[in-house]
Each structure stands twice: as structure tokens, then as C-alpha cells.
TrEMBL record:
GO terms for biological process: cellulose microfibril organization; plant-type cell wall cellulose biosynthetic process. Residues 1-27 form the signal peptide. One of its GO terms (cellular component) is side of membrane. It comes from the Eukaryota. InterPro entries: COB_C, COBRA_pln. Keywords: Glycoprotein, GPI-anchor, Lipoprotein, Membrane, Signal. It comes from Vicia faba (Broad bean). This is COBRA-like protein. Residues 223-416 form the COBRA C-terminal domain. It is a lipid-anchor; GPI-anchor.
Length: 446
């Protein structure tokens, strides 16, 4: 069954190969080959002992976002630069500014770490695109909120394009590891177009740094799993046991919450001291997120699927969540009820992957574990008669990612079998043939 399943989707094999070859060596995402976060420094004016720069961070990743508590950006100064002032961001530490007597810099660290300001920052401390608490939307979902920016005034630096030294060794935490940043490169100065579009100005000097994500670098435990069911079979295939951790295991992932515990709210409130580690409901899979795919109805020309996402994490509301799903029938997705979608076609030919996300103010917010901790939608597919079938698990998804992290799938040989096909029928056919043979042999001898 396993191999016949693979025969029908060689893409999976391809994918596994890709993953094997690329994840261990470099940051590479086959579904988003050009995905990156680009950090751009525009020098907008020279200062007596340095310069003023606007730093812009663009999330050019189709489906990976940066969630609360947000990004932090670090770099190493080339010489003895200091940050006199910042707008729209701040360094986490001031460092040792003992040498300065009159005006004290904002930061004297050789490797400063910058974080975003929180929403609600007074207007005179803001610049455009700042102050989102470090949250960056994915490029597909909300391009206007996939940008962050802050302004820095640098001292003890060069004051001309010949003498200025580029900061090096950029690090991006989001908030954990996973991103690797490339070298700092001087690029063509950014052009700024005035509001009335009648004048164009440009930066005095611009440099870029590109950071890419790798799940291998992030070394995260899985955070999501998939369960399956269908109208044609009562079996519900649960998430594989221990997908994201094991119950009763006292290591990192081990603790969980029994929803029937008497003091649930206070346990959720007190444990962990504002930690960002998930606090999950006790399940056999221990995942904070479960995606359920139910094959709901079969029409003559169409078939219908219900997708439900459950949040089992008591400590996390997922705003602007997204799902990336791969299934060969996505080239004929006829209707989707109450989710947004966009095709993801990395190689321009195979149209089998979509990105799904919630409708603003309706289901874009996936509430923490509990009665409201779920979102759902239904998908209607048109049948292509030459490939459509219910047997061999064809109607189940090949891959699912939640917020860019791959979800653990049940093994293909556990999938619910369709009633009018599968091993049972083969067995009865075989025994029928055997019976006939025996009968023939019997007759021949008599
Ligand atoms: C970063 O992403 C943008 C947008 O997809 C792309 O134009 C650019 O070439 C990428 N940069 C690198 C270095 O891959
Ligand atoms: C530098 O980054 C900006 C986005 O912040 C991008 O538009 C531009 O193409 C980049 N330049 C180069 C040479 O990569
Ligand atoms: C930058 O990082 C590399 C490798 O981590 C290290 O060898 C180098 O010394 C660092 N440079 C500076 C200026 O810190
Ligand atoms: C949880 O903590 C918040 C603030 O820390 C408090 O207002 C609330 O009453 C607590 N809830 C319970 C059930 O302990
Ligand atoms: C919270 O942190 C304090 C000090 O770090 C520690 O003593 C306490 O045990 C922690 N509480 C919980 C519930 O983890
Ligand atoms: C999730 O959002 C709800 C409603 O805004 C809020 O009451 C709750 O405290 C939030 N939970 C967490 C874990 O942030
Ligand atoms: C891919 O399939 C979707 C859903 O049927 C369709 O809307 C889209 O136009 C297709 N894209 C291409 C490039 O074929
Ligand atoms: C899409 O589904 C419709 C309705 O079943 C069918 O007529 C059409 O041939 C299908 N198209 C493709 C490309 O599979
Ligand atoms: C449902 O699927 C399970 C698992 O593949 C299989 O063992 C069972 O026989 C199927 N039941 C029916 C009624 O087809
Ligand atoms: C049962 O499976 C066989 C291949 O194993 C296929 O040729 C046949 O069309 C299937 N029958 C039904 C009713 O789906």
C-alpha cells in the first residue's frame, strides 16, 4: 500500500530528496525558493560625527511570519561606533557608556541588539512602519504589515561614503534561531518618491543584508500534526502518538494540562513565568496545533473536504495564522468557504499547493486552547475523472505546514480505506480464484 501510494505522487519523493539534500547544507525552502528577509540601511543624512540611517526590514517570505514576542536584530560594529539616538526601535541594553560625559548615547555596545517598540508608542517616537511589537506578516497575507523600520543616529563613524564602515555579522532572531544572514552589501541608493509623485530624492548611501530561514537551523520540535477522517469509513486516523513530544516525559516537552483539572485557569496563569514555551492540553500527540482533514461529501462532479485547525496551546493566540497544503487536486479548487487562498507555484508548472489563511475579523484569529480554540472551512474540488479516486489515500493531503512549520502526518498505511476497494476486495477476489482453481482441478481428476 505504501509504495502504490507513492506511485501516485512522485512529487513526495522529489520533495523528500530536496529536503534531504538542502536542509542540511543551506537554508532552502522548495515551496518558497526566493523567500528571505532583507534588511536595508539608507543613510539619509550625515551628522557631525557620523550619520543618520533608516533601517527597513522586509519580509519577502510567502508564508513565514514573525509572531509575538517578535524579531530582534543584532550586528557587530566595524569600529567604535555608538548609537546616539533611536526612533521606532530600541536596543535591549545600553552597555558601558562611561567614557561619555555630557550627552549619554542610547547604546555603546559593540554588538547591539535592537527590538521593535510596542503598539501605542507616542507619535513623536514613531516612524512609518515601526512599533508593531516585532510582528511581521507574511508577504502573501498582508504585504503592508510585512515591513518594519526604525531610525538610528550613529556617532564615532565615518561621515562620507568613503569613510563609513559597514556593520557586519547580522543576526536575526524571530524570536528563536532559524535565520542566517549573509554579508552586508553596498547597493544602488534607494529612491524615494514624494507623495505627489513630482519629485524623487535618494539615499546618500544604501546597503543590504539578506537573511534566510532554515527549519534545520531552527532545530525545533514539530509543533503541528495532522489527523484524517472520511464519510466512507468510521475510522478516524489520529495524529501519530508523540508527534510533538510524549506525555509523562519530564523533559522540555513533557508537561501538559488536563482540561478537566479543577484549577485550570490558575494553572495556566501561574506556570512558566510568561515563558513563550507552549503549554499544551494533554493529548497523545502533544502538539500545540492539530489540523484535521475530513472528506465530507462525494458528488458526481465534485467532492468536498472540511478542514479544522485546533489550538491546544493555552499560552498562545495565533493571529494571522496560515496553512500551506499540498494535494494534487488543488489545480481544480472550485470553491473555498470562509478562508482566503492563493496558489503557491514555486516551479511554474505543478499547481498542487495552496496557502490558506483566515478572513479578517472573522477567523484570522485562532484563540488559545479551549472551546473557541479552533477555526474551520470547507473546500470544494472539481473532479478530474482521470486521476480522482478515494482509494489508496489519494483524497488526503500530501503535506501541510502551519505558520511555515511542517506538520507530522499519519503513516499512509493507516489511512481509512474506501468501502468498495482495498485489501478486503483483493482478498475475496483471490479466494474466489483459488476456489475456482480447486474446483477445476477437482473436476479434472474426477
Ligand atoms: C529576496 O526576496 C526578494 C523577493 O522575492 C527577491 O527579489 C530577492 O532576489 C531575494 N534576495 C535574495 C538574495 O535571494
Ligand atoms: C535591497 O533591499 C531592498 C528591499 O529592502 C530591495 O528592494 C532591493 O532590491 C535590494 N537590493 C539588492 C541589490 O538586493
Ligand atoms: C563574524 O562572525 C564570524 C563567524 O561567526 C567570526 O569569525 C568573525 O570574527 C565575526 N566578526 C566580527 C567582527 O565579530
Ligand atoms: C490570571 O492573571 C491575571 C493577571 O495576572 C488576573 O487578572 C486573573 O484574575 C488571573 N486569573 C485567574 C483565574 O487566576
Ligand atoms: C517563576 O520564576 C521564579 C524565579 O525565577 C521561580 O522561583 C518559580 O519557581 C517560577 N515559577 C514557576 C511556576 O515556574
Ligand atoms: C487570547 O485572546 C483573548 C481575547 O483577546 C484574551 O482574553 C486571552 O488572554 C488571550 N490569550 C493569550 C494566551 O494571550
Ligand atoms: C491553480 O489552480 C487554482 C485553483 O483551481 C486556479 O485558481 C489557478 O488559476 C491555477 N493556477 C495556474 C497557474 O494554473
Ligand atoms: C475540474 O472539475 C470540473 C468539474 O468536475 C471538470 O469538469 C474539469 O474537467 C476539471 N478540470 C481539470 C483540469 O481537472
Ligand atoms: C476503514 O479503514 C480502516 C483502516 O484502513 C480499515 O481497517 C477498515 O477495514 C475500513 N473499514 C471499512 C468499513 O472499509
Ligand atoms: C479499485 O482499485 C483498483 C486498483 O487497485 C482500480 O482499478 C479500481 O477502479 C478501483 N475500484 C473502485 C470502485 O474504486
Amino acid at each position: 500500500m505504501f509504495f502504490s501510494f507513492l506511485k501516485h505522487c512522485p512529487r513526495i519523493l522529489l520533495f523528500l530528496l530536496f529536503t534531504l539534500f538542502y536542509t542540511s547544507t543551506e537554508a532552502y525552502d522548495p515551496l518558497d525558493p526566493n523567500g528571505n528577509i532583507t534588511i536595508k540601511w539608507d543613510i539619509i543624512s550625515w551628522a557631525p560625527d557620523g550619520y543618520i540611517a533608516v533601517v527597513t526590514m522586509n519580509n519577502f517570505q510567502r508564508y513565514r511570519r514573525i509572531s509575538a514576542p517578535g524579531w530582534s536584530l543584532g550586528w557587530t560594529w566595524a569600529k567604535k561606533e555608538v548609537i546616539w539616538a533611536m526612533v521606532g526601535g530600541q536596543t535591549t541594553e545600553q552597555g558601558d557608556c562611561l567614557k561619555f560625559k555630557e550627552t549619554i548615547p542610547h547604546c555603546c555596545e559593540r554588538t547591539p541588539t535592537i527590538v521593535d517598540l510596542l503598539p501605542g508608542t507616542p507619535y513623536n517616537q514613531q516612524i512609518a512602519n515601526c512599533c508593531k511589537g516585532g510582528v511581521l506578516s507574511s508577504w502573501t497575507q498582508d504585504p503592508t504589515n510585512s515591513v518594519a523600520a526604525f531610525r538610528v543616529t550613529i556617532g564615532r563613524a565615518g561621515t562620507t561614503s568613503k569613510t563609513v564602515r559597514l556593520p557586519r555579522n547580522f543576526t536575526l532572531k524571530a524570536p528563536g534561531p532559524g535565520y542566517t544572514c549573509g554579508p552586508t552589501k553596498i547597493v544602488k541608493p534607494t529612491k524615494f518618491i514624494s507623495k505627489d509623485k513630482r519629485r524623487v530624492t535618494q539615499a546618500l548611501m544604501t546597503w543590504n543584508v539578506t537573511c534566510t530561514y532554515s527549519q534545520f537551523q531552527a532545530q525545533k520540535l514539530p509543533t503541528c500534526c495532522v489527523s484524517l477522517s472520511s464519510f466512507y469509513n468510521d475510522t478516524i486516523v489520529q495524529c501519530p502518538t508523540c508527534s510533538c513530544g510524549c506525555q509523562g516525559n519530564t523533559a522540555q516537552s513533557g508537561s501538559c494540562i488536563d482540561p478537566s483539572a479543577p484549577h485550570l485557569a490558575s494553572v495556566v496563569n501561574n506556570s512558566g513565568n510568561n515563558s513563550i514555551a507552549p503549554l499544551v492540553r494533554c493529548t497523545s500527540h502533544m502538539c500545540p496545533i492539530r489540523v484535521h482533514w475530513h472528506i465530507k461529501l462525494n458528488y458526481r462532479e465534485y467532492w468536498r473536504v472540511k478542514v479544522t485547525i485546533n489550538n491546544f496551546n493555552y499560552r498562545m493566540n495565533y493571529s494571522d495564522w496560515n496553512l500551506v497544503v499540498q494535494h494534487p487536486n488543488f489545480d481544480n479548487l472550485t470553491r473555498i468557504f470562509s478562508f482566503n487562498y492563493e496558489s503557491v507555484i514555486p516551479y511554474g508548472s505543478i499547481n498542487d499547493t495552496v496557502m490558506l489563511w483566515g478572513v479578517k475579523y472573522y477567523n484570522d484569529f485562532l484563540m488559545h486552547a479551549g472551546p473557541s480554540g479552533n477555526v474551520q472551512s470547507e473546500l470544494l474540488f472539481g473532479k478530474d475523472k482521470s486521476t480522482f479516486m478515494f482509494d489508496k489515500g489519494w483524497a488526503f493531503p500530501r503535506r501541510i505546514y502551519f505558520n511555515g512549520d511542517i506538520c507530522v502526518m499519519p503513516p499512509p498505511d493507516a489511512y481509512p480505506l474506501s468501502p468498495n476497494n482495498g485489501s478486503k476486495q483483493e482478498v475475496s477476489f483471490l479466494s474466489l480464484t483459488m476456489a475456482l482453481l480447486v474446483a477445476l482441478v477437482f473436476y479434472a481428476y474426477v
